[in-house]
Amino acid sequence: MSNRTLTQEKFLLCAPVGFSVAMKKAAQRQMTTSSGFARLAIVEKIRSLGIEIDDVPPAPEHKASRQ
């Protein structure tokens, strides 16, 4: 399966100053986009609470990039 997924919903949130920079750095370490990183992180958290989301594949395991 490709890392790209079809998204049918958009979600907007407010975050503290510096959040987008931190998310971009985290996404780079996971070798993905900020959007992909955020999506996977949120899905993982929702699933950790015992809630399933229809048609969402499990988050792949990523190796940290060399930095």
Q: How would you sum up this structure, described in words?
A:
The chain is an all-alpha fold. It has a domain at 19-48. The protein is built from two helices and no strands. The protein has helices spanning 19-29, 34-48. The longest helix is centred in the middle third of the chain and has 15 residues, at 34-48. The N and C termini lie far apart (27 Å). The mean pLDDT is 79.
Highlighted features:
single chain; 67 residues; mainly alpha; 2 helices; 39% helix; 0% strand; globular
- Described by the principal axes of the CA atoms, the overall outline is globular
> What structural category arises from helix and sheet content?
mainly alpha
In whole angstroms, the N-to-C terminal distance is: 27 Å
Count every beta strand, where a strand is a DSSP E run of 2 or more residues. Answer: 0
Oligomer: single chain
Q: Over all CA atoms, what is the radius of gyration?
A: 13 Å
What proportion strand?
Answer: under 5%
Task: Specify the biggest β-sheet.
Answer: none
Name the helicity range.
25-40%
H/E element order? HH
